[in-house]
Each structure stands twice: as C-alpha cells, then as structure tokens.
Write a structure and sequence with these properties.
Homododecamer. The model has no long low-confidence stretch (mean pLDDT 97). This protein is an alpha/beta fold and 151 residues long. It starts with a strand and ends with a helix. It has one domain: Rossmann fold. Bound molecules: ligand CA2. The site of ligand CA2 has 16 residues, from loops.
Amino acid sequence: MKRPLIAVLNGPNLNMLGMRQPEVYGRATLDDVEQICIQAAERLDVAIDFRQTNGEGELVSWVQECRNRAQGIVINPAAYGHTSIALLDALLAVELPVIEVHISNIHRREEFRHHTYCSRAAAGIICGLGVRGYAMALQAMTDMILDENDR
Ligand code: CA2
C-alpha cells in the first residue's frame, strides 16, 4: 500500500531559524527541522513534503495543492497564523486534518501572538515544545490518518 503523504508547511522567517533569537527558538536550523521530520516520517512509515515560504499567497497555494494529494497538513504558519484569514480559508477549504505547530510558547509571549486564525481549522496545536513539536505533530497526524483509514 502507498504511504500516506503529510505536507509539512512553514511560514515566513522560519528560514532564519538557528541564526537569531536562540533564546526564543533554540539553535536548530530549518535544515535540522527537516531532518527531524524526515527521521520521524521514516519511523512512522509516511511520506512528507517539507516546504518553507515567506509569501502568504504561496503558502495559500501550497495548502490548496494539498487537496487530492496529501492526507494531512502539519503547518507552522509563523506570523501568518496571527494575521491571515486567507490562510485560514484555505485550510478550511482543503478538508484535510491540520495540526498547527509553534516552536515557542505563543501564550507566554506578546498578547498579539496569543490568537491564531489557523487554530480554527486545526484538529490540534502543539506549541512551546521546541522543534520536537514537529515530530510529535507527525506522530499525531499519522495516528489520525490511520484511524480514519480504519473506519
Ligand atoms: O514559535 C513559532 O514557531 C512561531 O510560529 C515563530 C514565528 C512567530 O511569528 C510566531 O509568533 C511563533 C517567527 C518565525 C521565526 O522567526 C525567526 C526570526 C528570527 C530568527 C529566527 C526565527
């Protein structure tokens, strides 16, 4: 049987991970995060499509492309989570399970980071657990896909 495909999408400035603000985001780079996801995917026997963009429109297009292609979306929307109704609309329209990840604990930070539009489309949110949150999200998403396939 074909392995389920999980899209792992990353929003703006996450390409700068590991270069600045290690006290907030840790020392791992985005390449390290991709490796963490690749290793988790091998363990879980799923395929991943790992991407990052600084563009809101591109992120929206990537979410749309997941329809009829991927079985689930793990997304760190970064700042667009706090601002983008367009991204929320795309996540709702695609009708796939979504897990939102934030590396930092957005609830311990500035007030404007406490709300995310994306969370309305998310089955669950992982935040504040560092980059290991991505592996946890892939584990949870795989469980959800397998549960759905068993129905
Ligand atoms: O904690 C997270 O994962 C965030 O999604 C990261 C976003 C931030 O806007 C969210 O509120 C929480 C920021 C992306 C990374 O930005 C960096 C900026 C400088 C150096 C390293 C990363």
